[in-house]
Structures are given as structure tokens and as C-alpha cells.
Design goal:
This protein is mostly helical. It folds into 6 domains: 186-297, Tetratricopeptide repeat domain (Serine Threonine Protein Phosphatase 5, Tetratricopeptide repeat, Alpha Horseshoe), CATH 1.25.40.10; 335-485, Alpha Horseshoe (Serine Threonine Protein Phosphatase 5, Tetratricopeptide repeat); 488-594, Glutaredoxin, CATH 3.40.30; 598-720, no CATH class; 745-881, Serine Threonine Protein Phosphatase 5, Tetratricopeptide repeat (Alpha Horseshoe), CATH 1.25.40; 914-1019, Serine Threonine Protein Phosphatase 5, Tetratricopeptide repeat, CATH 1.25.40.10. Helices cover 69% and strands 2% of the residues. The chain has 50 helices and 5 strands. Strands 1-2-3-5-4 form a 5-stranded mixed β-sheet. Helix 5 (100-112) packs antiparallel against helix 6 (117-130).
Length: 1020
């Protein structure tokens, strides 16, 4: 916090709501108010006298002159103290003080000193930073007329340049810079602003030439920090990140030691350097912007920098908050409006983005980003003028590759990769040295199955970029594409599978059969053509898949579709055994349908919703099972409206976005049939906006769709659930709002508020509302359950049981309460009671698949009681609602085989295979069941798959086992599989085929007793 100027203590109380800096001395205040705010400047006595009202006669004026002459003796003191006030005001503004009180002080100052150019400039700075550009212009113009002196003119020119750059008034900007440089040709702040101006208007060579005009200095820790700041600004404008970084780091270090008032400015520039330099995935940029805001908490541009950093990280949801703060501080800043329009374009708010861009262009008609945003909005809306806007961008700055690269990123975000390629190529055309264009181009080329060209583009990036090794996306993508380039490429009908050689013998047959059947189904239901070529890459390594799809490792998705090219995570990846591979493959193939029918224009929520729905059509237990989250969000008022549903896919709630979108598609199909979905895709293909698509395809207003969907959710999924809601922050606020709107709140509302506070661990508030609820209704079940939970938290089991018993006696039925009671019975060894509570828990929430699952818990209890049939039935019920748990399926298949039930065994073995097909034993068991069910051809296919499993792909593969022993085991297993094939072919009378398999078996184990027995059979 800046220090108050000397002699200013009497104003601190009045200024306590400002920055803490005193505004005037007591002498100055008393003088200004005792003498009717006369201007006390030598040479302006008559001007001061003329301020007296009403007008006086000549005699009175003559009598006043001696008084004014006497007051003139005070002028040196007052002028000195006035300069302290102005300097303190500058410090306040640099610290973010744009308050009305500071502005009022400056206006009072101007009443007393109307010739004060600095006062006018300070007011201009406040108005400019607030976004009041008309008022700022007035103050700059007034100060221009009265400013004199080298330093004063330079200071005026700096503020004028900042203002005219904001509003795009290049003529006045050039004039202001010229005047300032004429007065002070070596002023580094003016030279750096001139370089920024020249660079932003495409005069790159002239800007580079002006670097020589900067005062010479070595970029070291000992250099003048203010000069280093201007070096940083100038080199950053020219894209020379390394030099700008060195200057910025040394400047910030010294300013920090000096507690320099311009430290916020250098921290902002460092944030921009780290953002544009892609340092540490944006983390250093965030830190710099955070520190800048600590120095100037109202820095619009620092908030904006944080928002743009989130853009770079593809976290548009997290960009929303800093962008909103920037808008609140300066709603008219052209950079803010351009960023706001860009954010809207990412979320398909085309018309709103167009309105924002057009409003911004009325403020700054020469803003590159706003012209680009307007062109983008017109492009997406298929309106005339888009190309003119893009051409205007080139006219404004012939080297603005960054803008076209961002345009490519935006178009690619909406799956329109082929169109995005043209924007990246345009960026390269205007500036081949802007390296990021090659990375975006490479990604889109890869997404359209042009791998070799993608690798060439990445090679050009490495040749062009000064720091290619710190760009994780480019390097990860290059490695992932190189890995994919080494895969086997196998074409089967419309599908081209690119698969690891070890996995190809298993995955290609399985995916071919699966996709052949599903593609035929999709063609019939959606009317998609069958002549489309689809390229499928399957990555054995999760990190390779992650790098291929988003450019960094750790991405948790299982598949991604780029249109007619898709990528899958192999079932033997690091996620092995934790997902259902076949339903994932169907999900991604369904994307091909929705993306193709919409000509790459489908919104994210609809394409994901269709794919989630198709998973369930394919296999009923693939339901994602997020009903608990749905229940909580419903009660908290956080079911997203269709217009905002896309935002979930750029947020931590992305998985819920999939679930809600799938349910919405299910609702639409139930209401309007699959034709309603097809019609929506057709309309999106025509670039119709979401609201109009809903109106034309479904005959509904978007708000009506939201309301009907919400009602449907309650009727079909939620009304039968008996669960205590967990409230979000928004949920608690809604409860509090209901409380305020209710004159006499019901006991249940008070109890729910108590629960919400309990969930936030706000115990005092919880107990307050709990007591109020019990006072209104001493036998309230939800309150008794909360008392029980409170007792358990206090480790008081007996008291908790008493409250549970009271709640049950009052008719309470709540899922987690029954689970808790079942747990308490476990400690007491009461198995029958435990079974009862678990059954009641199932009744409260039949679709629950999370931890402490009642189906699995009941199965364990029945097993411990020796009731195997009951235990297996619980596992069956569990598998009907959960698609990827291997253990229960293996148990059910083994028990079915033991009791001679090949039908049930086959059902669960096929589900095991869908999760992990790289197990020879599973394929052999499947073949055994198929033979028992008189399905010999299918059994042959299963055994061929077993032969295709490489031993190193099996989950129990022991790499430490000696190679000789591994080979011996493998040969023995392969021999048995071959002999199984011989048996099947002999059974169906295909002796010649049986002999060929037998010959292969003999090569592996010529002395096998089973071979000798089969030979004898054939010879007979």
C-alpha cells in the first residue's frame, strides 16, 4: 500500500473508503474553502477574482486585489503540496483506485487550478480505465491545450497514446506520440508505445527500427527498472519473448525490492509473456496475473490475461469468472469485448457474439480482435460480410497470424477440422514465422486422417519456433502420431483399422463384426450413407491416446471422434478392466453419424447425448448410472438449460454433461421419435441456431423443452428415489431464498437448510436451523436422521441408533440411513437385520452402483450364510445396472458352467470379453458354451480369437518368467486351442479343415496324447 504524503492526516478519515492515500494538506483545504475556491497561481489573480459571484463593481474589485496579492505569498507552499497530491493520486490510480471520491478530489483540484494539465490527465486515466472513453477524450483534449514543459508533455502523450490506442483513433494517437517525442525524443515510455502502435498496425519493420531509439542499457538486475519495463513492452509487441522475458524478470525483481508503484504493470506484461510463451502450461502466467492484481486489484487487463490463459488451456468454464471481472471493471474495453465475443463463439452463442463485436467496433473501429470476432460470428451464421471482416483484419495488420490461428482453434473446437485448416493456412500465409499455426494445422490434418502431412507441419513448427521443446501439445502430438504411424493398417469394408500389431488379431475381428452390425443399424435408423470411410486408431497406451486427442497426458476419456476419423483406448491400456470397450466403440461410431449428418456442425451436447443414448440402445446396462448426481443437482437447481448445456463440457462436471445430454436425447426421442433427432441434425447442418432448431424440429420453445425435460426427469428417474439431497452452494442459496420468501417457514424447509449446513460442516448454523425445525415439528423424520448423523460424527453409536429408530418409527425411508444401519449391524453380527436394511436401501435407490453397493453387500452376506442362489441373484441384479465390473461376471459365468447352464455362462462371458478380450481362457470358455448351444461356427470364431491373443497381452503375463518356459506354456495352450478347432470341424463333417488344424497342432506338440487320439478318430 502506498504511503500517505506528509501533512495529509486530516484527510485520511474522509478518504478511508479509497486507497488510504491522503488527498490534500490541511492548509490547502482550508485555503480552498475559505476563499471561495480561488485559483492561487501567480499571474491568474484577476482570473481568480472573476470567479466571485455575483459580479461586483469596480471599487469592490480594486479592494480585493490587495487580499489576492497577500494570498499569493502562499503560492509556493500550496503548489508544492498540490504536486504531492497529484503524485499521490497517480500512485492511487496505479494501485487500482478508480473511485468516485478520487475523481471528485481531482475535479475540486481543477476548480482551484483550471490550468492543471496533470489533473486533467489523471481524470482522463480514471475515465479511460473505467471505459468512459468520451469523458476521457474531453480531459485529454483539455489538457492538450494547457500542457507545457518536456516532462509534462511526455506524460500527457503517454496517457493520450493509451487512450487513442484503446479506441483505435490512430490519427490522434500518432499526433500525440509525435508531440511527446518532439518534446522528449528519448522518452522510453513513448518509444515503446510507438513500437506497440506500429506493430499493431502491421508496420513491423518500422517498429523493429524504432527499437534503436530506446536508450541503450544492458538487461541486467542493475538496470533502471522503468527502462526495463519499456524494453519488455517493446520486445513483447514484436514477439521476441526471450528478450522481453529477461527485461521483465529483472524489472520486476528490482521493483519488488523498491516497492515500485509500477510493479503491477510489469507483472501484467510478464503474465502476457508467460501466456504467449506457453510456459508451464499457463501456471506461471496465472501467478504473474495474480501478483499483478495484488498490486492493482482493479487491473482489467490482468483479469483478461487470466481469462485468455484459460482459453489456452481449453478451460473456457474457468475463463468465465476472470472475464466477468474484467467486464465489470471496464465493460467498454475493446480487448474485453473481443474476448467476451470469442468466449460466446466457443459456446455457440453466435448472435450474441456478433452483437458484442459490433458494439466493440463502435468504440474501436480499428480493433483487429473485434473485426475477427465479427467475421467469425458471420462465418458461423453464414451471413454476408465475413470475408470482408477477415480482409479488414489483414488491412489493419498484414502480419496478424495470431488472429487467424485463434480463428482456426475456434473452428476446430466445433469439430469443423477441414474448414479450420483453411484458417491455419491463412495464418501461415500472412506470417510464416508465427509457429503456433503449424501446431493447429497439424492437429486438424491428423483429425482428417492426413497423418504424414500432420507430421510435416509439426516439423515446420520445430524449425520455426524459438522454443519448440516447451510446447507440450506439439511434442506430445508428434510422438503420438509417430506411434500411430507404426500401427498395422487393415481395411475391412468402410472401416480402416490402425492397430498395434500385437492387438490386431483380436481387435480387428471383434471391431469388424461389431461395427458391421452397428453401422447397418445406424444406416437404417438415421439414414446415413454406407459409402463413408471411417479410420479407427486404437492406442494400447492411455498417454499416447491422450496426447493424440488433446495434446497432453492424463486425459481421462476412452475415445474421441473427429468426424470420419476416431481414436479409442485399447482394453489392455492402463485403464484395463475398468471400462466396457465395446460400448465405448459404439459410442464413438455414433459420433460419426451425428457429426456427418450435421456436416460437423452438431453442438457438443447433442452429439454426446446421441452417443450416450446409443450405448444404452446397444446394451441396456450401459446407462452411465449418475442418478445420485442427477438427484442432487435437481434439488439444487443445477440441471443445465439446453441453451447452456455445452458449458458442462468445459467444466469439472463434464461427466455429468454426458449423462444429462444422454437423458435429454432419450426424452426427445420418446417425445418426437428418432426422426426428431435426425431433423435436428439436418437443421444444424444448415447452420440454424440451437433455439431455432428446437422450434423447427420439435415444435417447442427452448424454455418449454427445459420445463418438460425437468418434469420428465422427476417422473421417470427421481420421484421414486428416497435419498437425502446433498446441496451445492447454489442449492443452499435457493433454500435460503425460499426461507426469505416464506412468512412462516415449514419445518421441513428448516430441516433441509440444516442438512445443507451440515454438508458444509457449518455446525453452528446447522444446529440453529435443526433446533428451529424440531421446535416446529418434534417428530420430523429428516430432523431425526440429521440428529443420528450428528451423533455418529460424535462417535455416539447408541444415541445415533435411538435417533434412527425414532426416524423409522416416524416413517423415514432414506437410502444412506439404511446403509449406515446395515453397517452398524455388521459390527454387531446381526446378519438377518443387515440383509433387511440392505434390501430397504435397494428399494430407496434401485439403480445405485457406487461404494457400499447394497447388491454386492447382500451377496456377501448370503454367501457367508451358505445361500449361494440368493448370493448369485444379487450379483445378477447388480450386473443389470453396472456394465464394467469383471468380478461378479466371472463368478456368475463360473457358477453357470459348474451347474451346466451354458446360456447364462455365455451371457456373462461375452460381457467379460467386452471389457477385456485379451484373455485366451475367456475365448475358450465362450467357445465351449457356443458348442454346447449348437453354435459351431461361432465357436470357431471364438477359438480363432483365442489363437490371436499374444501371451504378453494377457493380464497375468509374467515377464520375469524365463523365455523358454514362456514359450513352452504358450505352445501347450495353442495346441489345446487347435485341437478344440479340430474337434469342432470333425463334428460338423469338415474333415479337410480339421486336418489342417491338426497339422498345426502336430508342429507344436507332436507327442501329445490328445493328438494321437484324434488321429485315430480321423483314420477310422
Amino acid at each position: 500500500m502506498p504511503t500517505a504524503s506528509p501533512g495529509s492526516e486530516s484527510r485520511t478519515t474522509q478518504a478511508s473508503d479509497r486507497s488510504g492515500i491522503a488527498r490534500r494538506s490541511p492548509v490547502f483545504v482550508q485555503s480552498s474553502r475559505s476563499f471561495v475556491q480561488l485559483s492561487l497561481r501567480i499571474g491568474h489573480l484577476l482570473r481568480a477574482e472573476s470567479l466571485l459571484k455575483p459580479p461586483m463593481d469596480s471599487m469592490r474589485r480594486l479592494q480585493l486585489i490587495p487580499v489576492l496579492m497577500h494570498l499569493a505569498l502562499w503560492t509556493p507552499v500550496l503548489v508544492c503540496q498540490d504536486e504531492e497530491f497529484l503524485d499521490a493520486s497517480w500512485t492511487s490510480i496505479l494501485a487500482g483506485d478508480l473511485s468516485d471520491s478520487l475523481a471528485l478530489d481531482l475535479k475540486e483540484h481543477l476548480l482551484e487550478f483550471p490550468q492543471s494539465a496533470v489533473g486533467q490527465v489523471l481524470l482522463a486515466e480514471i475515465e479511460r480505465r473505467r471505459g468512459n472513453y468520451a469523458q476521457a477524450r474531453e480531459h485529454i483534449e483539455t489538457s492538450r491545450q494547457v500542457v507545457n514543459g518536456e516532462e509534462a508533455v511526455a506524460s500527457w502523450a503517454r496517457s493520450a497514446a493509451d487512450l487513442f490506442l484503446d479506441v483505435g483513433d490512430f490519427e490522434r494517437l500518432a499526433a500525440a506520440l509525435a508531440r511527446g517525442l518532439e518534446s522528449n525524443p528519448g522518452d522510453p515510455a513513448l518509444i515503446s508505445r510507438e513500437i506497440v502502435f506500429l506493430r499493431q498496425t502491421g508496420q513491423r519493420d518500422q517498429a523493429r527500427t524504432r527499437l534503436k531509439a530506446l536508450p541503450a542499457t544492458k538487461i541486467t538486475e542493475d538496470a533502471d527498472p522503468e527502462l526495463l519495463l519499456e524494453y519488455c513492452r517493446a520486445y513483447l509487441a514484436l514477439g521476441e519473448i526471450e528478450v522481453a522475458n529477461r527485461a521483465g524478470v529483472f524489472a520486476e525483481l528490482k521493483m519488488r525490492k523498491q516497492r515500485h508503484r509500477r510493479r503491477g504493470e510489469i507483472l501484467f506484461l510478464l503474465g502476457e509473456i508467460f501466456r504467449l510463451g506457453r510456459t508451464d502450461d499457463g501456471n506461471q502466467a496465472f501467478k504473474a496475473f495474480h501478483d499483478a492484481l495484488a498490486a492493482d486489484k482493479y487491473s482489467t487487463l490482468s483479469h483478461l490475461g487470466a481469462a485468455r490463459t484459460q482459453f489456452y488451456r481449453m478451460r473456457w468454464d474457468l475463463a468465465k469468472e476472470p472475464l466477468a471481472r474484467a467486464k465489470a471493471l471496464n465493460p467498454n474495453h475493446p480487448d474485453v469485448l473481443a474476448c467476451d465475443a470469442e468466449w460466446m463463439l466457443y459456446f455457440r452463442f453466435w448472435r450474441e457474439a456478433l452483437e458484442v463485436a459490433e458494439r466493440g467496433l463502435t468504440i474501436n473501429p480499428n480493433h483487429r480482435g473485434l473485426a475477427l470476432a465479427r467475421g467469425a460470428a458471420r462465418f458461423f451464421l453464414k451471413q454476408a460480410g465475413a470475408e470482408e471482416d477477415f480482409q479488414k483484419v489483414v488491412e489493419l495488420d498484414p502480419f496478424f497470424a495470431e488472429g487467424f490461428c485463434r480463428m482456426g482453434d475456434l473452428v476446430a473446437h466445433h469439430y469443423r477440422f477441414a474448414e479450420a485448416i483453411t484458417f491455419y493456412e491463412r495464418a501461415i500465409a500472412v506470417d510464416p514465422g508465427y509457429s503456433l499455426s503449424y501446431v493447429g494445422l497439424a492437429a486438424c490434418l491428423a483429425n482428417t486422417a492426413r497423418t504424414e502431412e500432420a507430421l510435416e507441419s509439426l516439423a515446420r513448427f520445430r524449425e520455426t519456433d524459438p522454443l519448440p521443446d516447451i510446447h507440450p501439445y506439439a511434442n506430445n502430438l508428434r510422438e503420438a502420431l509417430s506411434t500411430a504411424d507404426s500401427f498395422l493398417s487393415i481395411e475391412r469394408g468402410p472401416f480402416v483399422f490402425r492397430v498395434d500389431p500385437l492387438e490386431a488379431p483380436v481387435l480387428v475381428p471383434l471391431l469388424t463384426e461389431l461395427y458391421k452390425e452397428r453401422w447397418k443399424n445406424f444406416s437404417q435408423r438415421y439414414g446415413i450413407g454406407t459409402d463413408l470411410k471411417v479410420v479407427i486408431d486404437v492406442f494400447p497406451d492411455q498417454n499416447d491416446f491422450s496426447a493424440r486427442t488433446v495434446g497432453f497426458t492424463g486425459f481421462g476419456a476412452l475415445g474421441v471422434c473427429f468426424g470420419s476419423c476416431l481414436a479409442l483406448v485399447s482394453p489392455r491400456s492402463q485403464l484395463r478392466g475398468h471400462f466396457e470397450f465395446e460400448s465405448t466403440a459404439v459410442h464413438e461410431l455414433a459420433h460419426v453419424v451425428s457429426i456427418t449428418l450435421s456436416r460437423q456442425r452438431v453442438p457438443r451436447w447433442l452429439t454426446e447425448g446421441i452417443s450416450v443414448h446409443e450405448e444404452k440402445v446397444f446394451r441396456a446396462n450401459c446407462d452411465r448410472e449418475m442418478d445420485l448426481e442427477l438427484f442432487h443437482y435437481y434439488h439444487s437447481g443445477e440441471i443445465m438449460r439446453v441453451r447452456e448445456l455445452n458449458e458442462l463440457f468445459s467444466s469439472p462436471k463434464i461427466l455429468f454433461g454426458y449423462f444429462q445430454s444422454g437423458l435429454l436425447v432419450e426424452f426427445i426421442i420418446g417425445r418426437s421419435g428418432e426422426r426428431g433427432i435426425v431433423r435436428m441434425l439436418e437443421l444444424f447442418a444448415e447452420d440454424v441456431e440451437t433455439e431455432d432448431v428446437i422450434r423447427r424440429a420439435l415444435g417447442l420453445e427452448p424454455e418449454q423443452l427445459d420445463a418438460e425435460f425437468s418434469d420428465w426427469l422427476w417422473r421417470t428417474r427421481l420421484s421414486s428415489m428416497k435419498v437425502q439431497p446433498t446441496y451445492t452452494e447454489l442449492g443452499l442459496k435457493r433454500l435460503q431464498q425460499r426461507l426469505m420468501e416464506t412468512g412462516e417457514p415449514p419445518a421441513e424447509l428448516l430441516a433441509q437448510i440444516a442438512w445443507a449446513y451440515h454438508q458444509q460442516d457449518r455446525r453452528v448454523d446447522r444446529d440453529d436451523f435443526l433446533n428451529r425445525a424440531l421446535k416446529k415439528s418434534p417428530s420430523l423424520p429428516s430432523a431425526e436422521l440429521l440428529l443420528a448423523r450428528r451423533a455418529l460424527d460424535s462417535k455416539d453409536k447408541e444415541r445415533a441408533l435411538r435417533h434412527f429408530e425414532r426416524a423409522l418409527g416416524q416413517g423415514a425411508e432414506e437410502f444412506f440411513a439404511f446403509l449406515t444401519l446395515a453397517d452398524l449391524c455388521l459390527a454387531d453380527g446381526k446378519k438377518d437385520k443387515r440383509l433387511e436394511y440392505l434390501e430397504r436401501a435397494k428399494d430407496c435407490f434401485p439403480r445405485y452402483v457406487g461404494p457400499r453397493n447394497p447388491y454386492l453387500l447382500r451377496s456377501h452376506v448370503f454367501e457367508s450364510l451358505g445361500q449361494e442362489d440368493n448370493a448369485l441373484e444379487e450379483l445378477r441384479q447388480y450386473c443389470r445396472i453396472q456394465e464394467s465390473d469383471l468380478g461378479p461376471r466371472l463368478t456368475l459365468s463360473e457358477k453357470a458352467l459348474e451347474r451346466g447352464d451354458p446360456g447364462e455362462a455365455l451371457r456373462y462371458l461375452l460381457e467379460v470379453r467386452a471389457i477385456d478380450p485379451f484373455q485366451r481362457d475367456i475365448h475358450r470358455k465362450i467357445a465351449r458354451c457356443q458348442r454346447a448351444l449348437s453354435l459351431p461356427s461361432m465357436a470357431v470364431e471364438s477359438l480363432e480369437l483365442a489363437l490371436g491373443v499374444d501371451p504378453s497381452c494377457e493380464p497375468d503375463f509374467d515377464a520375469k518368467l524365463p523365455a523358454v518356459e514362456r514359450v513352452s506354456i504358450d505352445q501347450a495352450e495353442r495346441t489345446e486351442i487347435l485341437l478344440d478347432l479340430v474337434d469342432i470341424h470333425l463334428e460338423v463333417g469338415e474333415t479337410a479343415t480339421a486336418r489342417r488344424y491338426l497339422e498345426r497342432a502336430v508342429e507344436l506338440a507332436p507327442d501329445s496324447p490328445r493328438i494321437l487320439e484324434i488321429k485315430a478318430r480321423i483314420d477310422r
